[in-house]
Amino acid sequence: MTTRTDPDARGDLPLWTGIARQTDYWWTVYKRTWRSSVVSSFLAPLFYVVAMGVILGGFIEGDPDQLEGASSYLAFVVPGLIAAHAMQTAVGETTYPVMGLIKWQKVYDSMLATPLQVSHLVGATLGFVLFRLVTTCAVFTAVLAPFGVYASWWGPFLAFLAQVLTGMAFAGLVYGFTARLQSESAFGLLFRLGVFPLFLFSGAFFPVDNLGAVGSWVARLTPLWHGVNLSRMFALDNVTWWLAGVNVAVLLVLCVVGWSWSVTGLRKRLVS
């Protein structure tokens, strides 16, 4: 751990100003790395949607009573898969990349030698994650809209916001987790015991009621279920508004908790 005086104690640089001063750095990072993210962020998930929703979905009867109001399995699976992919994108951007900024490249150390403060570093990094989520989810929404998976004109827009919110809820939590790690070896457990089970059992592929009484309620307690459910309700124009309010509230609370968890974790890691 690097020992230094806490720059946040001065409080002499507004949060948004500090974040804005890092725009050139993050834009340069994106220009140098966007090609490597094309397959993982766009092509592979799109092929996954086609395989699961179009090919496999052709063998599944589109019963709205069994698919939460969806007229086809494709319409059922797409909103959930985009929300799940938003989670995966957020986790991917806040694990190894953040560890690199802290431990390997020491970029954060050099930034803290300037008037930038810990909250500025967290805000700019999460802002970059937000940018990645917006671009990724927007491309998916635009590409899949002609397939008839949205039941209203406003559905894609609200579903898109739900998907981005889902990603940001995970971004802050995982950032705080990464900031507290001394070794990247724990990421394997995060992916195997956290991300992968959530991806499979949070309602992206099948209604959680199929898990039984206990399993369905366990699934509903997971953050990803709230994002998947919200995205799907908006996409299918089958909204239970009180439940949508609960989903939004849970995700917003997780965003706030994640922000605090991230800032305190990075401050403990880099500042005495």
Please explain how this structure is put together.
This protein has helices at residues 15-20, 23-55, 73-93, 96-104, 107-112, 118-144, 155-179, 186-201, 212-220, 223-236, 241-270. With 272 residues, it is an all-alpha fold. Helix 3 packs parallel to helix 7. The mean pLDDT is 88.
Q: How many E-type strands?
A: 0
Helical proportion, percent range: over 70%
**Main beta sheet:** none
Give the C-alpha Rg.
20 Å
Distance between the termini: 8 Å
Q: How many separate structural domains?
A: 1
Low-confidence region ranges: none
Structural class label? mainly alpha
Mean pLDDT: 88
Can you count the helices? Answer: 11
Summed up:
The protein is 72% helix and 0% strand.
Which key phrases capture this entry?
mainly alpha, 11 helices, single chain, 0% strand, 272 residues
Which secondary structure elements does this structure contain, and how are they paired or packed?
Layout: H1 15-20, H2 23-55, H3 73-93, H4 96-104, H5 107-112, H6 118-144, H7 155-179, H8 186-201, H9 212-220, H10 223-236, H11 241-270
Helix pairs in contact: 2-3, 2-6, 3-6, 3-7, 3-10, 6-7, 6-11, 7-10, 7-11, 10-11
